[in-house]
Design brief:
By secondary structure, this protein is α+β, with helices and mostly antiparallel strands. It contains 6 helices and 25 strands.
Length: 415
């Protein structure tokens, strides 16, 4: 009986000891975890992704917008020594602030500038001609009755009654009678009629028939399209009076307005492809033949003239034309391009944030750069960056605000 009691008490003692050991293991571990969590919480800084000036030592809501606060950094994320001027952020803060980065790559190509031009089609002024009356008189008939008609060289466009021309023909007939004794007089009479644009065939016919006429045809010496009609039947015209304005539309001008900021990238001889609203899907090509050296004071533009062939007469004067010119920036070969969104501006300075390599947590440092011309949505970097570096392209202002609050160099306080 005593032996059984001893065994019973021994078994109870072992069970009690095992329970004490298990309780210490469980509750002791929980206490250590609680202390560790509290220590980590004390070392964290919480902020608002919309209002980075809010800084708290524990999670909660932003007092300005009621958004959940996000951790900025913790002691476990430092990953070793970092540059004292750099700003470090947690992965959560990076995601919530939508901070994006990209690597800079110089591919060795020369960047181009996209220049958009708007203009209208105009007649080629070199092909403009005026049909004039070589003698004064009255217009008896007109063969051309409206603008837009086509005139061919050698075509009779009108007839004119001219007393002066009648007298010149009579002089020719009289000189013809004395041709054997005074050949110079005949030559002078023929030359007078030639100066009034009568052809040798017409003059020969007058000599052969021996008859003069007060009504003579006016014959076109060039071909083209009638741009303007200046006379009506029955009008009196003086010598040299304009009857019709003609234009040869087989070659036209596309005249564009170029802003003064784009003028340095355009030069005579550049090829230009343009399209018209009325001829969708078709592209026409030409070369810049002239750049007006004078700017329009009101629009701050200069006229750019592009000559284009128009064999099918599809390009009609006063049609609207749109052109895009990709001008190569030849002085910027192997240039580094960065997005506009990456650059923060403050007065004359421009800065970007560069991600620091070999850090466990995202770490960024401000760097001042020099930018050149704009190329589409990018800037050419003249100095301050090199190929292979990683820069912030979205959310740079959030990082800069954090740097300002921590008293580190920022766009407003570079020192």
């Amino acid at each position: 009986m005593n032996k059984n009691k001893v065994l019973k008490y021994s078994l109870l003692t072992l069970i009690f000891a095992a329970g004490v050991f298990a309780g210490k293991l469980i509750f002791g571990s929980h206490h250590e975890h609680t202390e560790k969590t509290a220590a980590e919480s004390e070392s964290q800084v919480w902020t608002c992704s919309m209002h980075p000036q809010i800084r708290q030592d524990k999670p909660g809501k932003c007092p300005l917008c009621a958004m959940d606060l996000i951790p900025v950094k913790s002691a476990g994320e430092t990953g070793g020594a970092i540059d004292p001027d750099a700003i470090q952020m947690s992965e959560e803060a990076i995601a919530l602030a939508n901070i994006k980065t990209t690597y800079i790559v110089a591919d060795g190509s020369s960047p181009t500038r996209e220049i958009r031009l708007y203009g209208v089609i105009k007649p080629n002024e070199r092909s403009l001609h005026s049909l004039v009356s070589q003698t004064g008189g009255r217009i008896e008939t007109l063969s051309i009755n409206y603008a837009g008609e086509t005139v061919r060289a050698g075509q009779t466009v009108a007839t004119i009654y001219s007393p002066e021309l009648l007298n010149a023909q009579n002089e020719l007939l009289e000189a013809r009678k004395m041709a054997s004794s005074q050949p110079a007089m005949l030559a002078a009479a023929r030359e007078k009629l030639r100066r009034w644009k009568l052809s040798d065939a017409q003059i020969d016919e007058i000599e052969r028939s021996g008859k003069s006429s007060a009504v003579m045809p006016l014959i076109a010496d060039v071909s083209g399209t009638v741009v303007a009609k200046r006379v009506e039947q029955g009008d009196y015209v003086a010598q040299g009076g304009v009857l019709f304005d003609l234009a040869d539309l087989s070659s036209v001008w596309a005249v564009f307005d170029a802003y003064e900021a784009d003028l340095p990238y355009l030069k005579v001889g550049d090829k230009v492809d343009f399209s018209l609203q009325t001829l969708a899907g078709k592209t026409f090509a030409g070369k810049i033949s002239f750049i007006n050296p004078m700017l329009d004071a009101a629009t701050r533009t200069a006229k750019i003239r592009v000559e284009a062939a128009n064999p099918k007469l599809e390009l009609k004067p006063e049609m609207y034309a749109n052109a895009v010119v990709y001008a190569a920036l030849q002085k910027s070969s192997d240039a580094i391009l960065i997005p506009r969104s990456a650059v923060l501006w403050t007065g004359k300075r421009s800065v970007v944030y560069v991600r620091q390599p070999d850090t466990d947590a995202p770490t960024f440092k401000m760097r001042e750069i020099t930018v050149g011309e704009a190329v589409g949505d990018n800037f050419i970097v003249l100095s301050g960056l090199k190929s292979g570096e990683e820069i912030v392209t979205n959310g740079a202002f959030v990082i800069d605000a954090s740097a300002q609050l921590e008293g580190k160099p920022s766009m407003m306080n570079p020192d």
